[in-house]
Every structure is written in structure tokens, then in C-alpha cells.
Amino acid sequence: MTSPATIVINGKEVQFTGGQTILEVCRGAGVPIPTLCHDNRLKPYGGCRLCIVEIKGVPRPLASCTTPAEAGMEVTTESPRLTRLRKTVLELLLSNHPNDCMCCEAAGNCGLQTLAYRFGARLDRFPGEQWQLPIRQDNPFITYEPNKCIVCGRCTRICNEVVMAGTISLVNRGFEVMPDTAFAKPRSLDNCEFCGQCVSACPTGALTDTKGRGLGRAGDVTKVKTTCTYCGTGCNFFLNVRNDRVIRVTSDLNAPVNHGNLCIKGRYGYDFIHHPDRIRTPLIKEGDGFREASWDEALTLVASRFKALIDEFGPEKVGGFSSSRCTNEENYLMSKWVRTAVGSNNVDNCARV
Amino acid sequence: MPDIDTLFLFGSNPNEGHPIISLYLKEAIANGARLIVGDPRKTWMAKRADVWLNLKPGSNIAMLNGIINVILENGWENKAFIASRTEGFDELRAKVKEYDLDRVERLTGVGRDRIIEAARLYSQADKAMIVYGLGVTEHRTGTENAMAIANLALVCGQIGRPATGIMALRGQNNVQGASDLGPLPATLPGYQSVADAALRGKFEKAWGVKIQDKPGLKSVEMLDECRRGNFKGIFILGEDPAHTDADAKHVQEALAAVDFLVVQDLFHTETTRFADVILPGASFAEKDGTFTNGERRIQRVRRAVTPVPGMAEWEVICRISTLMGYPMAYNHPSEIMDEIAGLVPIYGGISYDRLEEKGIQWPCPTKDHPGTTTLYTDLFSRPGGLATFMPLDHQGSGEVPDEQYPYVLITGRIREHYNNGSMTRRSAGIAEVVPEELAEINPADAAALQINDGDWMRVSSRRGELKVRAKVSDRSQAGNVFMTFHHQDTLTNILTSGFRDPITGTPEYKSCAVRIEALG
Ligand code: SF4
Ligand code: SF4
Ligand code: SF4
């Protein structure tokens, strides 16, 4: 693009760059457009038909997620016709959806629930056949409730497009189409990475994190944004906290490094935080074992023993190992402690790997 | 990873070690990038590679010299780049000439067709990027291995343009920050040498003490001194060297010998067994702070729950220091960062209020500096702008297989677990899907040893032995066996050797000689 091109959205001029879709331009300009099958991490799909907009000169509404913006387009994102069409789409989805919001794990964090509420969609407008499939918990991490699936394909697309694990795909035909593993085999390390990307992409309660089920829903938790403690990639995510416990990890779609993607460790490796094996109090060696001690006793002992060794043998005989697992601030303080309180330069971080 | 057209992955298995970075690489491959993989193991990437260089462990330099030699013999080098941006090319040319295809085939075990194809793909690519990992650095020649990679990139001029260059992937979450902030014997925080009087003076003034001008001991050296009875006290903060250091028995002897050992950790580990005082640590969910990732992005860690032991490590250090007569007091880790910003120029513009939304990549010298984007592409640069070729020779691993110990043990990581496993083994589900160590052994070797999948076998090296179950898999090539170090009941590092890169001190985790026996 040589000069910045513009389109008109709801009467207002907005700049865009070549290759952007109408949906991207609208959202970039703060104009909300409902979607269910769209995920920024995925290629546009055009499946759910909720993102339809009207374009001047085009008779039928078009899916904004798959339509590229073109200079001079005049786009309308809200109109009685669009509302009617969107409401119909939602009511068709609800016609084969269990009325389970009160017990559903995803309530409060469900795209379908949010949009049904916003458009006043009703469950009984299109009575018809409903899936009656059993809930599946055949692996330690991921619960699948097929009855809640709206076949948006986000799970299968993220598994294939982004993770390239090829674990799940849309199987069956017609009314029976649903995401599943090959031959409906349970997810295991043989066919799945357990990255939970599919869960993070699912807009409904069809895919949920098993470990957090029943422990608190979106409205019950405080979300604390933080950085992963495992590898050096530096993924961000939200710790979901309820009653001073981490009950779940959820994606931060705005994270600069990982854009909401996580691996098994980042998403599911949090139980150690509250594990009963945690050391809770200082321990002092006694005979062959250790005895519990107060912080005051332990730290006084530590300080006096180091002090005595320094006095007797010199600061060159005392040092500290710091850790790639500790924070920057702690590493700095370790470096400072050895150079001030101890008085040597014997400080290193362990294995440098 | 913007439009790379050729990706050369060397000694790195990002699908396991860096799963999220692997997503970018997968995207590049899906977009049509050609893929060369140098790895003794048949990894996910190796299976999908256009060329898989299935080299013998420890033969990295021979491999790279051989590739460069093919490039030069065919005139595939970037002559303009070599002439204008490098020096020492004739020496390099003379050295790699010694690595003809016959010799390189013999040293690496890789067929010549693959070597030639790799040379052609990489050198003829418009934009080629090399990504390397611990398979390069965790050898006694680790630093030289990395230099050999630089030689290749320079010969082809695959550097300094978008989607080219060399990117190194390291292991632990804050290995970058831990290097940046000075727990290093020769440098003060921010890589400022203790030998430099002016820099030392700056810290002396801020800290109000005299700082020694002589570098201290590296961790390995401290442990060596312990063994000799010459070292008296160590404070280990959140590390488990008795489990994760190579030649772990040697480390354990040292820890047993030191007069006074303090270890702070979340859980009992191999290392806490040797402690005189164990202090409970706080997990990342229990404290405020920052981590710096592999692309130098400083990001916030936030306290989400109450610290289990009542206080975090930074508070503990302050209290010990104060009791020793050097008062340290901060109300919050943000005040520590403010102090860092005043003393460490590369962190000069960092403060917590700037890290609220997104992290900042250093160097960030001032409060109004936006930080420096490097996007995982560590470019080779030297003052004066000329890069120097380093002629290098194949040395091989410190320990090579022989009659007594005929197999090569490669150690590494799997995606599901982390380091000593103390955290991931205690995470529900992960412990269930990967409950124990499984040593990967090639079907041909397994057949010869009469070992079936799941059988127990004894693996021994000159330093120790252990029992482990076999996973018969062609991910391991014949002659190699692969183990991780994630399980406390299978202390893989009692097998690994004491050879180290003399420059970085990094142990040769990637290769040692072992014997394998079936236990049924
Ligand atoms: S957990 Fe990951 S690999 Fe497994 S099905 Fe979901 S997206 Fe695919
Ligand atoms: S399981 Fe969820 S993400 Fe997958 S198709 Fe169904 S609703 Fe969409
Ligand atoms: S989520 Fe996985 S890839 Fe991301 S930082 Fe954590 S361990 Fe690394």
C-alpha cells in the first residue's frame, strides 16, 4: 500500500493496511463484531456466519472474517436485518444445545452464552433432534462434552494449523459431524501433546480443563497475569485464583510472545504450588534428619555460621549459587549479598543451561 | 518467524524443549520453508526434514566443516559478503579443505548425499536461518561448536537480513536474567567486570563496601574446592546440582564435604539431603518479580497467592544479610528493580510501572527508551563490523564408546517435564502420563541385547549405574541411547561425564559412554 487506504465503518472513515479483513479492521477500530468460529491464532474460516456485515452495493451480507477490506468500502456492522440473521444463527445452534448453563463449567466464559444473552436468542425456536452423547473424560486433562459442541472447528483447526499435532479432526457427516480423535480413541501421549490449545480455543463448554472442573467458574476467580516458570520462552498466562488457590491456568491472548498458546507445562503444570510435599518451615539438620525451626531461629543460625566461617577462614571460602528459576531481583540480591555481606566474588548460577 | 525460506535446526529439539517457539518454526514449515535438521535423534522435526543429518554425537564441528567445504568446492559461497564483511577466510578455507567427504562421512556417520544436499539448500537459499540448541552447547567443545555454526552462516552471508541469522535456544526460564543480573564470579550485575576499577567503583559507592577486584570461583570450582576441604560455606538458592549437574556423584561428594550448606527450595531434592539448613522457597505464583526470556524481554511475575512459607526468597536474603551486619531492606521487589536500573545500564529504563502491559526487551538504557527488539534473532556482530572466521578442528566427545562401554548416552528433556522434575512430577496429570523415566533404545540394539519394550535394563558408565525401563524406538539410532534427567529415582547424571566446555563451564551432558545389560 503506497498511501493509507480507508474504508467507512458505520459512517466513520477508518484506515487499513493491505491484506486485512473487514473483521480485523473493525476490531482494530474498536467496533465489536460477534464471532464464534474466529480465533486470532487461526486462519479465517467463515463458518459461524455471525460476523456478517452489510457492504454498500452488495446485496447479501458477507462474512467479515473472510472478506478482505478494499478501499472505499462502506460497511455497516449493525442493522435490524443483521440482528435478525444473527439471532437465527444462534437459535439454530441452541436448537441442538443442552440447557445446562447453570451447571456448565464454561458459564461466564462462553461465547455462545454471551451472544445468546445479547441477542435474546431462545432455545425453543427450532425444536428438533438433539445429540444425546455421553460426556468423555478419557484422559487426565481434557473433558469433552460433545452435546455442547457447536462444530465451530476451532479445536480441530488449532490442533492442526498451529500445534500440528493432528490429534483431532471433524469426523462424520451432516447432523452427526463433530470433532473427535481418529477412531474416537482416548487422547494419550501417543496421539496428543496435552497442550490444551483446543480447550483454549473452544468458545463453549464442550472442551474444558478437567483439573479445574467444579473448582470455580470465570465469575468466581481472580485472574493474575504472570510469566511461565518453566522454559525460557517467556509465555504469559493468567493464574485463575480462588480462595488463595490456583485452580486453573487460562490463555492471555494478548501475550507478546505466545499469543495465548501454551504447552503442557505452562497450562497444566501448576499443581506443585499447593502440593502437600512443599517445605513449609525452615529445617535444621539434627542427627540423621531435620527438625522444624522458626524463621528467626534458622536465619540467626545461618547468619552466625556464615559470619563465623568468614571470620575464621576469610570471605574467599564462602559463596552462593543462584538460580535460573529465581526472579531477576533475587538473582541481583544474591549477587549483592555475596559481594557485600560475604565480601567475595564467589557467586555463580549453577549449570548455565 | 517472518518468511524464512530455509531453516537449519541444529542440535535443538524445540518440539520438546521449547514447544511454543516450535509453533513459529512449524508455521514457517507449513508456509513452505525447507528444513535441514542436524540431530542424532529422529525428532519430530527430523522426520519432516528435507535433509536429516543424523550425525554421531560429538561430531558437530566435522559436520559443519564438511558442509562448508562442499559449499566452497562448488562455489556456492557468498563471495561479496565474505569480501566485505569478514576476515580470516583463507585460514578457514585451508582448514575445511581437510574435511573432504570421505573423512566427514567417517567422522559423522552421515551419507555424502545428505551432506551435499544440506550444503546446497542452506547456501542457495534466499533467506536461511539457523536455530541451535543445547545439542550444540552441551559438549566440551560447545563454544567451538557455536563458532563453527557462525562460520557457516558467514560463508553464505546468511546473516544480518530479516529471516536470516543465528538463534540460540537455551534451557531454563530465567537463564537470561540470571546471567544479566550478576550471579557470575567475574562480572557484577549487567556484565560489568569486577576487574574494571570505574565499574567497581560505581557499585562500591552504591553498596557502601569495598568489592574484590579478583574474579571469584565458578560453581564447579567451588565444588572442587569443597572436595579438597578448602571451601567452607555455600548458600544454594533454588538449584539442585546433586541431581542436574553432570557427574552428579562428584557433586554429591563435594556437598557432603562442605562445612555449612544452606539450600532454599520448594521441595526436598537430592541437594537438600546434604544441607545443614533447609529454607523453604516461594513458588513463582507467590511472589512479585521479573523474568527475562530468551529474546531479552523483561516480563512481570505476579504474586497470586500467599507464600506457603510466609516469605519469598528476596525477603530471606535481606534478612540473612541484615543479620550478618549488612542491612538490606526493600518494601517490594519493584524497589530492587529501581536499584538495578540505577546500576545496570542495559536495564536502565526498566521499572515496574512500564512492565504492566507488556514486557520490554533490553537494552533499554533510559526511562523513555522503548527497548530493543531482537525477536529471537541473535545477530553476530563485532566492533568494527568485520566478523572473523575461526578455523576449528574436530575433537569429538571427551568420552567415546569402546569395548567396555559401547553405547553413547545422550541426555535431554521431554516436553512434559522440567529439569529435576520436582514441579512437574507433582502436577496432576503430568505425573500420570509420564510417570517414570524410559530410556530410548534403537530396535536393532534392543534385539541384540534381548531387550523388549518396557523391560528393565541396567545402564552403567565409568561413574555409576542405574536401572531404567527401555522404550524401544527408532527415535534413537543404533549405538545411541537417550535419557532425560527429570526423575529423582533415575538419577541420569550419575552416568554423565565430568568433561566441560573450558570457556563456559557447561558440562558435556550430550554424550558419554555407557554399557547396557538386560535385566528382564
Ligand atoms: S491438547 Fe493439543 S494436541 Fe491434544 S487435541 Fe488439544 S490441541 Fe491437539
Ligand atoms: S469442541 Fe468447541 S472448539 Fe471444537 S468444534 Fe466444538 S465448540 Fe468448536
Ligand atoms: S508455556 Fe511451555 S513453552 Fe511457554 S514458557 Fe512455559 S514451558 Fe515454555
TrEMBL record, chain A:
The keyword Membrane applies. GO terms for biological process: respiratory electron transport chain. Residues 221-277 form the 4Fe-4S Mo/W bis-MGD-type domain. The keyword Calcium does not apply. Keywords: 2Fe-2S, 4Fe-4S, Iron, Iron-sulfur, Membrane, Metal-binding, NAD, Oxidoreductase, Repeat, Translocase. It holds the Pfam family Molybdopterin. Signal peptide: none annotated. It is an enzyme of class 1 (oxidoreductase). Residues 3-81 form the 2Fe-2S ferredoxin-type domain. Its cofactor is [4Fe-4S] cluster; [2Fe-2S] cluster. Its EC number is 1.17.1.10. It comes from the Bacteria. Residues 81-120 form the 4Fe-4S His(Cys)3-ligated-type domain. GO terms for molecular function: 2 iron, 2 sulfur cluster binding; 4 iron, 4 sulfur cluster binding; formate dehydrogenase (NADP+) activity; metal ion binding; NADH dehydrogenase activity. It is found in: Membrane. Belongs to the complex I 75 kDa subunit family. This is Formate dehydrogenase alpha subunit. It comes from Desulfoprunum benzoelyticum.
